[in-house]
Amino acid sequence: MTNLIERYLAAWNETDADARAKVVAEVWTEDATYTDPLADVAGHAGIAAVIEGAQGMFPGFVFTPGEVHDAHHGIARFTWHLGPAGEEPVVVGFDVVEVAEDGRISKVLGFLDKVPTA
Protein backbone atom coordinates (compact mmCIF):
# COMPACT_ATOMS: atom_id res chain seq x y z
CA MET A 1 0.00 0.00 0.00
CA THR A 2 2.91 2.35 0.63
CA ASN A 3 3.77 2.24 -3.07
CA LEU A 4 0.20 3.18 -4.03
CA ILE A 5 0.24 6.13 -1.61
CA GLU A 6 3.59 7.28 -3.03
CA ARG A 7 2.23 7.09 -6.60
CA TYR A 8 -0.97 8.86 -5.52
CA LEU A 9 1.02 11.74 -4.01
CA ALA A 10 3.33 11.81 -7.06
CA ALA A 11 0.25 12.53 -9.20
CA TRP A 12 -0.67 15.44 -6.93
CA ASN A 13 2.89 16.78 -7.17
CA GLU A 14 3.26 16.45 -10.95
CA THR A 15 3.15 19.94 -12.47
CA ASP A 16 3.52 18.99 -16.15
CA ALA A 17 0.00 18.42 -17.55
CA ASP A 18 1.00 15.60 -19.93
CA ALA A 19 3.07 13.78 -17.32
CA ARG A 20 0.28 14.29 -14.76
CA ALA A 21 -2.28 12.76 -17.15
CA LYS A 22 -0.04 9.71 -17.52
CA VAL A 23 0.37 9.29 -13.75
CA VAL A 24 -3.38 9.75 -13.17
CA ALA A 25 -4.06 6.97 -15.71
CA GLU A 26 -1.57 4.71 -13.94
CA VAL A 27 -2.98 5.35 -10.45
CA TRP A 28 -6.77 5.63 -11.04
CA THR A 29 -9.22 3.44 -12.97
CA GLU A 30 -10.90 5.06 -15.98
CA ASP A 31 -14.20 5.49 -14.11
CA ALA A 32 -12.67 6.47 -10.76
CA THR A 33 -14.37 9.08 -8.62
CA TYR A 34 -12.82 11.71 -6.36
CA THR A 35 -14.88 13.51 -3.71
CA ASP A 36 -13.70 15.98 -1.08
CA PRO A 37 -15.20 19.15 0.44
CA LEU A 38 -14.16 21.17 -2.63
CA ALA A 39 -14.67 18.71 -5.50
CA ASP A 40 -16.81 15.83 -6.77
CA VAL A 41 -15.49 14.51 -10.08
CA ALA A 42 -15.19 11.32 -12.10
CA GLY A 43 -12.71 10.03 -14.66
CA HIS A 44 -9.11 10.84 -15.42
CA ALA A 45 -9.77 14.32 -16.85
CA GLY A 46 -11.81 15.35 -13.81
CA ILE A 47 -9.20 14.09 -11.36
CA ALA A 48 -6.37 15.77 -13.28
CA ALA A 49 -8.35 19.04 -13.26
CA VAL A 50 -8.80 18.88 -9.47
CA ILE A 51 -5.07 18.30 -9.04
CA GLU A 52 -4.27 21.24 -11.33
CA GLY A 53 -6.68 23.42 -9.34
CA ALA A 54 -5.01 22.49 -6.04
CA GLN A 55 -1.61 23.30 -7.50
CA GLY A 56 -2.96 26.68 -8.65
CA MET A 57 -4.23 27.45 -5.15
CA PHE A 58 -0.90 26.47 -3.54
CA PRO A 59 1.86 27.12 -6.09
CA GLY A 60 5.20 25.56 -5.23
CA PHE A 61 3.78 23.51 -2.36
CA VAL A 62 4.31 19.73 -2.22
CA PHE A 63 2.20 16.84 -1.00
CA THR A 64 3.93 14.47 1.42
CA PRO A 65 2.67 11.40 3.26
CA GLY A 66 1.37 11.86 6.78
CA GLU A 67 1.74 9.57 9.75
CA VAL A 68 -1.40 7.42 9.44
CA HIS A 69 -1.94 4.70 6.86
CA ASP A 70 -3.85 1.47 7.08
CA ALA A 71 -5.46 -0.94 4.63
CA HIS A 72 -7.72 -3.98 4.50
CA HIS A 73 -10.19 -5.61 2.07
CA GLY A 74 -9.29 -3.32 -0.84
CA ILE A 75 -9.79 -0.16 1.22
CA ALA A 76 -7.04 2.12 2.48
CA ARG A 77 -6.87 5.27 4.56
CA PHE A 78 -3.97 7.65 4.91
CA THR A 79 -3.09 11.18 5.88
CA TRP A 80 -1.16 13.63 3.75
CA HIS A 81 0.40 17.06 4.20
CA LEU A 82 0.63 20.01 1.84
CA GLY A 83 3.07 22.85 2.31
CA PRO A 84 6.40 24.31 1.31
CA ALA A 85 9.07 21.59 0.99
CA GLY A 86 10.64 20.81 4.36
CA GLU A 87 8.34 23.15 6.30
CA GLU A 88 5.27 22.81 8.49
CA PRO A 89 2.23 21.79 6.37
CA VAL A 90 -0.38 24.41 5.63
CA VAL A 91 -3.02 21.78 4.81
CA VAL A 92 -3.47 18.32 6.32
CA GLY A 93 -5.87 15.83 4.80
CA PHE A 94 -7.19 12.34 5.34
CA ASP A 95 -8.20 10.19 2.36
CA VAL A 96 -10.03 6.89 2.16
CA VAL A 97 -9.58 4.99 -1.11
CA GLU A 98 -11.09 1.91 -2.68
CA VAL A 99 -8.60 -0.14 -4.68
CA ALA A 100 -9.74 -2.06 -7.76
CA GLU A 101 -8.59 -5.59 -8.51
CA ASP A 102 -5.96 -4.23 -10.92
CA GLY A 103 -4.34 -2.29 -8.05
CA ARG A 104 -5.51 1.14 -9.19
CA ILE A 105 -7.75 3.45 -7.18
CA SER A 106 -11.45 3.38 -8.06
CA LYS A 107 -12.75 5.83 -5.45
CA VAL A 108 -11.33 8.55 -3.20
CA LEU A 109 -13.18 10.15 -0.31
CA GLY A 110 -11.12 13.07 0.97
CA PHE A 111 -11.36 15.08 4.16
CA LEU A 112 -9.52 18.23 5.21
CA ASP A 113 -8.28 18.20 8.80
CA LYS A 114 -6.28 21.43 8.70
CA VAL A 115 -6.85 24.30 6.28
CA PRO A 116 -5.47 27.82 6.16
CA THR A 117 -7.62 30.58 7.56
CA ALA A 118 -8.31 33.72 5.57
UniProtKB/TrEMBL annotation:
GO molecular function: isomerase activity
SnoaL-like domain span: 5-107
InterPro entries linked: NTF2-like_dom_sf (IPR032710), SnoaL-like (IPR037401)
Pfam families linked: SnoaL_2
Name used for this protein in its record: Isomerase
Gene3D superfamilies with a match to the protein in the record: 3.10.450.50
Keywords on record: Isomerase
